[in-house]
Hints:
- By secondary structure, the chain is of the alpha/beta class.
- The chain has helices spanning 30-37, 41-50, 77-84, 111-119, 131-134, and strands at 17-19, 22-29, 58-65, 69-70, 93-97, 105-109, 124-130.
- It has a single domain (17-134), classed as Conserved hypothetical protein from pyrococcus furiosus pfu- 392566-001, ParB domain, CATH 3.90.1530.10.
- The chain contains five helices and seven strands, in the order E-E-H-H-E-E-H-E-E-H-E-H.
- A hairpin with a 2-residue loop joins strand 1 (17-19) and strand 2.
Amino acid sequence: MARLHTKSPPPPTAVDKLIDGLAVVEVVSDEVLRERLASRPWAEQEFRREVPPGMASQWALVRCPIGVFEVPGVIDRERMASYATLATAPPPVVAFRSSQGAQHLTIFDGCHRVTAARLRDDATILAYVPEWQLRR
């Protein structure tokens, strides 16, 4: 009988550490995340209103399995379709750990991007999550 060979996933690299089972690409300060959101005025205004400075001093950019996200609200199908057909990767989403447990994230900014990624059958998506929530 032939033996099946399965590949193990590669070990995490220096910039791809695992925190709570999620692959961390980089960790940025609150200030850097706010600067990155400034290119999307709605997200930056909402973030400033809902997330007080200092709530998270560090944000981890993590590669998350698409299934960990809870998508609240109603999705605009046209916007979702436009994200689904982008030639380049959309910006990372911003999410917080859900009260439902360690492997559930609630999207703060990026519902259409997550829904579009599901439509494309993407396995993962990048998300900014408060680093301290990954260490609970």
